[in-house]
C-alpha cells in the first residue's frame, strides 16, 4: 500500500496522484483493481448514495458504516475518510474522540476535514495524536449554506491570497495533502507550487498534483446533479436502466425464469401433491 511518503515522492517526481471516491465494497474493489492511488470515502455519500440534497445530514455512523465496507473491498489502498458536518467544530476532546473512533472502527489511513484557519487547531490535534489529516479548501460543501451555494471559490485576489495562506497553514499544522475544490486553475498552480505536500484537485484544473472525482459522477451512474467539471468515463447509468427494464419485461412476458434456471423434483415425489 502507498503511504503519505510515497505521495510526497510522487509529487516531487511529477507523477500524478489518482484518487476516486467509493462508498461500498464493489466500488472499492473495482478501484483497487484499477490501481488508483487513494480512495476517498467522501461525505458526497449523502448525495450520490443516500439521496440527500446536501452533505449536511450525513452522520459519523453513516461514514463509519460505509468506510468499513470500503476497507473490506480495498485492503491495500490508502483510504481517506471524510469527517462529516458538525463532527469537528465543537469541543476539541469530543473531536479527537470522534476521530479516533472513525480511524479504529474503519481501518482508515487518514481523515479529511473542510476549512481554513478555523480548523488549524483540529489538524494539529489529530496529527499530534497520530492521525494523518487531509485538508479540504476552496468550495466546501459542508458550508454551502454560508457560501451561498456551490460556487467557484478564490476568484478575487483577496480570496486567492486567503486560500494560499490557509493551505500553507494546513501544511504547517501537519496536513499530509490538500484537496482543492472548484477554484481557478491558475490558483491551483500557485498553491501546488508553494506546498511540499500534494494538492488533489476537483474542478481545479490540470495543475494539481493529483485529481479526485466522485465514483458515481465519472461513471455517469445515478440520478443526482452532475457538476460542469466532471467528465463521464463510462455510462453505467444507461446500462443499469437497460438491465432493469429488460428484467421487468422478461418477468411480465414470462421469458424469465426458464425451466433451465429452475430446480426440479422427481415425478414420484409429486404424486398426490396436486389437487
Ligand atoms: O465528499 C467528497 O466526495 C469530497 C470530494 C469531492 C473531494 O469531498
Ligand atoms: Na466531502
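-> sequence recovered:
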Amino acid at each position: 500500500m502507498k503511504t503519505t511518503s510515497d505521495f510526497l515522492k510522487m509529487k516531487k517526481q511529477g507523477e500524478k496522484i489518482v484518487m476516486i471516491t467509493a462508498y461500498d465494497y464493489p466500488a472499492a474493489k473495482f478501484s483497487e483493481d484499477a490501481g488508483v492511488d487513494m480512495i476517498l470515502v467522501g461525505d458526497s455519500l449523502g448525495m450520490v448514495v443516500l439521496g440527500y440534497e446536501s452533505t449536511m445530514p450525513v452522520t459519523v455512523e453513516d461514514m463509519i458504516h460505509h468506510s468499513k465496507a470500503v476497507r473490506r473491498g480495498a485492503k491495500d489502498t490508502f483510504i481517506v475518510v471524510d469527517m462529516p458536518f458538525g463532527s469537528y467544530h465543537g469541543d476539541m476532546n469530543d473531536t479527537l474522540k470522534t476521530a479516533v473512533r472513525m480511524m479504529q472502527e474503519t481501518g482508515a489511513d487518514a481523515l479529511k476535514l473542510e476549512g481554513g484557519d478555523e480548523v488549524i487547531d483540529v489538524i494539529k490535534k489529530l496529527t499530534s495524536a497520530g492521525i494523518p489529516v487531509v485538508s479540504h479548501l476552496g468550495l466546501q460543501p459542508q458550508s454551502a449554506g454560508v457560501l451561498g451555494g456551490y460556487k467557484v471559490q478564490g476568484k478575487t485576489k483577496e480570496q486567492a491570497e486567503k486560500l494560499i495562506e490557509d493551505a500553507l497553514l494546513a501544511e504547517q499544522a501537519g496536513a499530509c495533502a490538500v484537496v482543492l475544490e472548484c477554484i481557478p486553475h491558475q490558483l491551483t498552480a500557485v498553491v501546488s507550487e508553494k506546498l511540499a505536500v500534494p494538492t488533489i484537485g476537483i474542478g481545479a484544473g490540470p495543475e494539481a498534483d493529483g485529481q479526485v472525482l466522485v465514483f458515481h459522477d465519472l461513471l455517469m451512474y445515478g440520478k443526482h446533479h452532475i457538476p460542469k467539471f466532471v467528465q463521464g468515463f463510462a455510462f453505467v447509468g444507461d446500462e443499469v436502466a437497460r438491465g432493469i427494464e429488460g428484467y421487468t419485461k422478461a418477468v411480465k412476458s414470462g421469458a424469465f425464469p426458464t425451466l433451465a434456471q429452475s430446480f426440479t423434483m422427481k415425478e414420484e415425489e409429486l404424486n398426490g401433491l396436486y389437487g
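Residues 41 and 186 are 28 Å apart (CA to CA).
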